[in-house]
Structure formats: structure tokens, C-alpha cells
Amino acid sequence: MDGESELAARFRAGDIRALARAISLVERRDPSVRALETPPKGGEGSAAVVGFTGAPGTGKSTLVDALVTLLRKQGKSVSVIATDPNSPFTGGAILGDRIRMQRHALDPKVFIRSMGARGHLGGLSLATREAIRLLGAFGFDQVILETVGVGQSELEVAAVADTTVVVMTPNLGDGVQMIKAGILEIADIFVVNKADLDGYQRVAMELRAMLSLNAPGATGAAASKPWKPPIITTVAARQEGIDELWAAIESHRRYLETSGRAQELAAKRLKDETAEVVADLARQQARLALGEDGALTEQLLKDGSPYRAAEEILNRIGSDGRKRGRG
Ligand SMILES: Nc1nc2c(ncn2[C@@H]2O[C@H](COP(=O)(O)OP(=O)(O)OP(=O)(O)O)[C@@H](O)[C@H]2O)c(=O)[nH]1
Ligand SMILES: [Mg+2]
């Protein structure tokens, strides 16, 4: 307990090592850091979040690195979280060469961290969301997420980021034909990077054609003035197009605020996250019960289907909770 309050004091005092330690605890889903996620004075304390996703090697890290440089010139503090859906939790170690941002390593206003996801039930989003709240409470202005677009990772980035940037390149085999289902729906901004290579105009053109076919049929507050994802071409390796990219990100953020979409999203996320937390807790309880309770397992095997045992476990959780509430 003493250790935790010391951690809290160091965190509040702006000690970056306390932040790093807190994020490690988040990765382990240690509940002791949750108190740190609320900013001390209310109001301020939430960072803007931009997520970058795209196929391996499209230049995400190079783009993020260039964006960090731009944001630092504006005096903003920025944190980068690189997640790798194929790696186990890393305890903060840098994932191979996924992160090309070493030149910012000595800047105290830049915090770079990687998180692995393999073996993490419910994917990365819970831990990422907690980490983002910590970074906001710590005082970072901007959080940038980077994740390789494999499996469900794009959807997870989109579920967490305010603005999702999907990065493509001209040398992706069949180009836009390769685009994964669901990408058009989650991308707020498309980047065609490596515009120094042949074929980038074709990728941009095909993308434009697909987007016009897929013209948004938005519902809710945003329906009257839907967002049209812009296509930005960049040469990240030469820092070209980065100003345009940042302008597009800012313009999307203004759109979220003026359309009322920001509030809709915040509410939806809190609900989704609550459901995930409940599922997580219930799963832990279920494993415990199934591991310890021979009679329950016997019943389960006899039934040959999970529903009765599941209901029994949920009932127990409910009555435990009520007992605890009274006690
Ligand atoms: N020609 C060219 N190469 C680039 C450009 N931007 C990045 N690259 C190169 O592309 C390779 C991959 O860049 P990264 O930034 O590591 O790509 P990434 O998307 O972060 O890669 P993963 O994290 O492994 O998925 C590197 O060799 C970069 O130097 C560009 O604009 N043009
Ligand atoms: Mg990378």
C-alpha cells in the first residue's frame, strides 16, 4: 500500500519513471493504478488520440516520427504507444525495429512505449484505454497509437482513437483491391505513403473511387454533415506531406467537436468499455469456479453445453456482489 501511494505521489509530481511503472501495472491489469487515471483537478487531463494502422512496412512509424517532430515544434507534449498484436506483453521493451523514433528518446516531452497484445483476453483495447487515461492524467497533450493492421487490430485502434489514420502504399500487391473489409468504415483519414514510388496516384485514384461508392450513410448527430475521409499523400521518409496530414487530423477533430460526434463517441466508448470490464471480471470468476468446484464441472460435463453452468456462475457472482455490498 505504501509503495502504491509513493507511486501516486511520484506520478503526480511528473516523474516519468512513475508513469512507465504505472503503465506496466496497467498491462498486468493491476487495479492499484486505477486511482491515477483521474486527473487531480478535474476538467483538464484528457489527451487527444490519433491512431495509425496499416499493413506491415507501410511507413507508420516513419510518419509518426515525423509527426512527433512537428508537434514538438508546436510545443506540444506527445506520447506514442506502439502495439503489436503478435507479441506478448513486453514490459515496455521496444519491439524490434517497429519503433523508429529513437531521436526523440532524450526529449522529456516525448514518451514512447510499446505494448504487446498476445495472450491478452479482449485484445488490446482495455489496456490501451487505461494507458491513454494515465497519459492524459499525467499531462500529455497528444497520444499517438501505432498498430500493425493484422487481425482485428484496426478495429481496436478505431475503438480507442478519436481519429483513425489508415496508411497505404503503392507497393501493396493488388493495391486498393487488397483493402480489408471494414477499413473504409473505420478510416477517418487515408494516407498514401511512399509517394516517391511509382503507382501512388493509382492507389489514390482507386481509393477515391471506392470512397465515392461507399458514400457515408451516417446516422445520429453526424448525419446532417457527414465526414468525408481525405486522402493525403506523403513521403514520410523525407517528411513530405506531414503538415497536410496534421491539418487533416486537426480538421477531423474540429468536425468531431462541432458535430456533437465527440460526445456521442465518448458515451459509446464508456459503455463499451464497461461491458468489456464486466466480461473480463466475469471470465475470471468463471475460470475460478470451474477450476475449484468439482460439482459444477461434473454438472457441466453431464449437460454437454455451457448454458446452465454459465447461469449458475453468474448467479453466484450476483449474490457475492450483493453480499459484499451489504458487508
Ligand atoms: N520509399 C519510401 N520508403 C519509406 C517511406 N516511409 C517509410 N519508408 C521505409 O519503409 C520501411 C518501413 O517503414 P516503417 O516506418 O518502419 O513502417 P511501419 O509501417 O511502421 O512498419 P511496421 O511497424 O513493421 O508495420 C522503412 O525502411 C522506411 O524507411 C517513404 O515515404 N518512401
Ligand atoms: Mg512501425
Task: Outline the structure in words.
There is one protein chain. The protein is of the alpha/beta class and 327 residues long. It is built from eleven helices and seven strands. It has two domains: 40-259, Rossmann fold, CATH 3.40.50; 272-326, no CATH class. A seven-stranded parallel sheet has the order 3-2-4-1-5-6-7, sandwiched between helices. Helix 1 crosses helix 2 (16-27), helix 2 runs antiparallel to helix 4 and helix 9 (261-292) packs across helix 11 (307-326). It is globular, with a radius of gyration of 22 Å. It binds guanosine-5'-triphosphate and magnesium ion. Residues 60-61, 98, 146 line the site of magnesium ion.
Q: What compounds sit in this structure?
A: guanosine-5'-triphosphate, magnesium ion
CATH-wise, what's the superfamily of the largest domain?
Answer: P-loop containing nucleotide triphosphate hydrolases
**Beta strand %:** 5-15%
Pairing-aware structural class of the strands and helices? Answer: alpha/beta
Order of helices and strands: HHEHEEHEHEHEHEHHHH
Query: How much is the radius of gyration in Å?
Result: 22 Å
Biggest sheet overview:
7 strands, parallel
**Could you give the count of β-strands?**
7
Which outline best applies?
A: globular
Q: What is the number of domains?
A: 2
Q: Indicate the CATH architecture of the largest domain.
A: 3-Layer(aba) Sandwich
In angstroms, what separates the terminal alpha carbons?
22 Å
Average pLDDT for all residues: 83
Given as residue ranges, the uncertain stretches (5+ residues, pLDDT < 50) are 89-98
**What is the spatial order of strands in the main beta sheet?**
3-2-4-1-5-6-7
Please give the CATH class of the largest domain.
Alpha Beta
Query: Share of helix among residues?
Result: 40-55%
How many distinct helices?
A: 11
Question: The CATH topology of the largest domain, please?
Answer: Rossmann fold
